[in-house]
Amino acid sequence: MFKRFIFILVALTLTACGGGESAEEIQPQPVPVPVPTPTPEPPPLPTNNESARFLNMATFGANVSSIENVSRIGFEDWLDEQIALPATSHVAYLQILEPTLNLAEDERLRRGERLEAWFTHAITAEDQLRQRVAFALSEIFVVSEHSTFSDDTYGLANYYDLLLNNAFSNYRDLLEEVTLSPIMGMYLSVLGNQKPNEEENIRPDENYAREVMQLFSIGLVELNNDGSEKLQNGQSIPTYNQDTIKAFAHVYTGWNFNGATEETWWKFYQNYNSMEPMTAVDSFHDTSEKQLLNNVVVPANQTAEQDLAIALDNLFNHENVAPFIGKQLIKKLVTSNPSPEYVARVSAVFNDNGQGVRGDLGTVIKTILLDQEAIEGTNSNANFGKIREPLLRAVHLWRSFEASSPNDRFQFNWSNYAFAQTPLGAHHVFNFFSPDYAPPGIVSENNLIAPELEIVTENYLTRTSNFLAYSTFWGHTEFEDENTKEARILIDMTSLKPMINNTNELLDHLDMLLLGGTMNDEMRVILTAAFDETSEQEVNERLSNLLFLIMISPQYTVQR
Amino acid sequence: MNRRNFVKNLLGSSVGISSASAALSSMSLMNSALAQTSNRFDDYKALVCIFLHGGNDSFNMLVPSDNIDYQSYQNVRQNLAIAQSDLISISPSSATPYNLAMPNFMAPMQQLFNQGNLAFLANTGPLLQPVTKSQAQQNINLLPPQLFSHNDQQKHWQTSWPEQTALTGWAGRMADLIMDTQNPLSMNLSVNGTNILQTGFNSLPYSLDASGVETFSALNPNEDWNSDRVNAFRALMSADKHLLGQAHSAIYNRAQSNIDIVANAINTADESTITYPANHLGNQLKMVATLASSQQLLAQSRQVFFVSMGGFDTHDNQNTDQPMLLQNLSNALFAFNADLQARGLSNNVTSFTMSDFGRTLTSNGDGTDHGWGGHQIMMGGAVKGGDIYGSMPADFTLNSADDFGDGRIIPTTSVDQYAATLAKWFGLSVNEINTIFPNLSRFESDDLGFMMPS
């Protein structure tokens, strides 16, 4: 019964997500061609190893079928296919799940079910690129369950759907939907923000005004297109000051839950609606003139919507957005230390997708993943790559080894304990880790950064390693134990068994799935010896051990 | 950057702001520090940093109590003011510009204050040098970089060195100078994750959490059946030349070399006889007390602990959230103090708060925005308690000379002075302190006087 439920769900999607809208319908320019040029050779199709390596950047992890698919159609067609796929909705998952749970009247879905939706889609959804990019966006446009709406399961899932739906839309649309999301409204205080009341010393709330600039759009200092800081007399140049924040804070006044009115403005619980965008109540909106960035002025006496449109355009058109957002997306998907040239190439596409459109995220994502630096990897830069996010190491294992669960549900509630990470569970708007974190020692000494290491403390490294042991030795479908009857996410190692007597073939296969073919000879020699040493042991034990060694190796821990 | 570069770096930056002779003396200081061995201290001391994440609205912790002064506070704070009937009075030993009281939800802290175990430092914050309102308005370069931004101000608090390009914290630099190089376990112990405060040029904190340390399962080298696997893993680590991979392996190595000794210390320490409040800070402080009482087993004569508590960024619902936060803080401090007393460690362990910034005195409707100066809390037997140090703003009038706008109060004491006072008690020499706090000499006093002489 539940298998069918999952099947239905894959087909079920949210309506029109607007992914990859080439909405411009640009007519090809009728350029007269004097000499017939030969059609350019299509790039050679990738090998399975290349496909797997590509998928490990573009998805939650390669598996056999997705590798075959990419090797058959090539990177670019695969990206186009993925961008065209509609979003697999997290809200829809909950809506289908809820009636099957026979909840009592006073019971509601809880965070466990929200995370179940997340793990299910991360592991099984067809729109892998979208799911992966949305996760990256959830670490930039941060909201968190550590807030007043902690038990609003649908509201949080709906925010996640917003990120999914806009993963390949225009950044301007994403920014607007994020700004008007009631979840974000509650998280960073736009919701209920009101015009000044001088008698009571009340002035507009500056929370969102500040963080949307510092974290979601332009950052603290002026940037060149290649991501480097602009300098004036050797000093970086602040993008905004306190007056700018105040002006934007005045812009973001008058918003409340969808449908709230002047009469109901103060009735939080009566108005509560976390599923639809906020709407404005103009009597609570400040109508003074506001001086924004780059000498843009919001005229007096406008509505909340008019003010907001100017303000978001003002942010959207700032030169910083391309390098600020583009570089973060590169860091989340591909490499912590991109070259300035790589960042500049992505910024250029952000600023103009080739058809005169600014902010086309679908094309930006394609550019990031198809860039020569991403494709060449450590072949051109020995320290290319990134520390895999601890949570995503487990998800990768589950995806690559066709995870299943005894109760057909992917329930896993203690992600934070094992990884210091839970989807939409950061402790503050600055995400689990800072995009610029450079751990002391060998990384910062070489002027590199490794953001993910900010959450890899001694204690969490140990827990993650233990979780991977638990998931390989005790977390496969043939492990006979009371535990396997519980809600567990289990890997399937049966496909590896035919290779048990051919260590080379087995290592080739694991190299492809987990390392995208980057296993070097030295690693292979070590693993071969380690595997052959276990020849007296039971087959599953041997395979678990080998898998575990790869999963905890620094060679795997750095996606490269 | 290695330690010798740290020396060069410090000299380079200190030459500009202090005299050449000071630079020379720090050079000899550093040379002697390089030879530091384990025998420097024959007593035990610990510092406990309690970081209040988000920016505590501390002008609601110390409230003018007499009618006319309360009125001026109430005028500016409006719907965020603590009701006068909810105030409980305190009598600091030193004179204050007006009588002060605490909100009743901080009653346990009032008791500690009255017993002389707790003191406040008034209106402290990140500063580059002492600055007046008109100076700051005329020259933006006199302001700390990215004033009012959470992570930048947290950095300033934790580094006391906003100009540095590397990110080292003052407790980390302290460890660079005084750590026992024979001891594999870091002097800096974090009970709540990565932080800059405890990161040095040459020394790193060791992180555990409130529940203790996790021990390795399949990688436990103490179990025979793991030995082949552990050896293979070690071979994989040494085979990887990728710098990010090496950094990850370094964390593994630190975990591996410390787990047994720390786990053993926790397991053999006396159980606490005190009931802590069931909140995250209480759990963390309980672990700190456990580790402090294990200092002999850990062979540590000096320890710095980092714990933290979130939720202080009260843009919304401040009247509901802040009392709860400060109540949790008060209860946790009270239990921790009692635990240390029961363990006979009260005079050895000094706790102190830090927080991003104070908050605007004015309201944004139901909360406050990012401010600047704020009050901090010091607790322990070595603190000259029952008093308020630093200076309270003369009054609470908006647009006064203390108000940088909307009730963002310009600090009158710098974070450097605060930290230096703690470092001095901890046993660092004047020269060492000037090395660790390169901007300290710009302020009038390098000892705010809130610690007992050591």
Order of SSEs of chain B = HHEEHEEHEHHHEEHHHEHEEEEHH
How much strand of chain A?
under 5%
Structural class of chain A: mainly alpha
The major pleated sheet of chain A works out as: 2 strands, antiparallel
Estimate what percentage of residues of chain B fall within beta strands: 5-15%
- What is the straight-line distance between the termini of chain A? 40 Å
- Fraction in helix of chain A: 40-55%
Compute the average pLDDT of chain A. Answer: 93
Question: How many E-type strands of chain B?
Answer: 12
Oligomer designation: heterodimer
Low-confidence sequence ranges of chain A = 1-27
Which word captures the global form of chain B? Answer: globular
List keywords for this structure.
heterodimer; A: 560 residues; mainly alpha; two-stranded antiparallel ribbon; disordered N terminus; B: 454 residues; alpha/beta; nine-stranded mixed sheet; 13 helices; 12 strands
Summarize the structure.
With 560 residues, chain A is an all-alpha fold.
SSE layout:
The complex is a heterodimer of chains A (about 550) and B (about 450).
Chain A: H1 2-11, H2 48-58, H3 64-73, H4 75-84, H5 90-100, H6 111-124, H7 128-138, H8 153-165, H9 171-180, H10 182-187, H11 207-214, E1 231-232, E2 235-236, H12 242-251, E3 255-256, H13 268-271, E4 279-280, E5 290-291, E6 297-298, H14 304-316, H15 321-333, H16 340-351, H17 361-370, H18 372-376, E7 386-387, H19 390-400, H20 415-419, H21 442-445, H22 458-473, H23 503-515, H24 521-533, H25 539-552, H26 554-557, E8 558-559
Antiparallel strand pairs in A: 1-2, 3-4, 5-6, 7-8
Helix pairs in contact in A: 2-3, 2-23, 3-4, 5-6, 6-8, 6-19, 7-8, 9-14, 11-12, 15-16, 15-17, 16-17, 19-22, 22-25
Chain B: H1 3-17, H2 20-34, E1 45-52, E2 63-64, H3 67-77, E3 87-89, E4 100-103, H4 107-114, E5 118-125, H5 133-138, H6 150-159, H7 170-178, E6 188-190, E7 206-207, H8 227-239, H9 243-268, H10 280-293, E8 302-309, H11 318-342, E9 349-355, E10 374-379, E11 388-390, E12 413-414, H12 415-426, H13 430-436
Parallel strand pairs in B: 1-8, 1-9, 5-11, 5-12, 6-7, 6-8
Antiparallel strand pairs in B: 2-4, 3-4, 5-10, 9-10
Helix pairs in contact in B: 1-2, 2-13, 4-11, 10-11
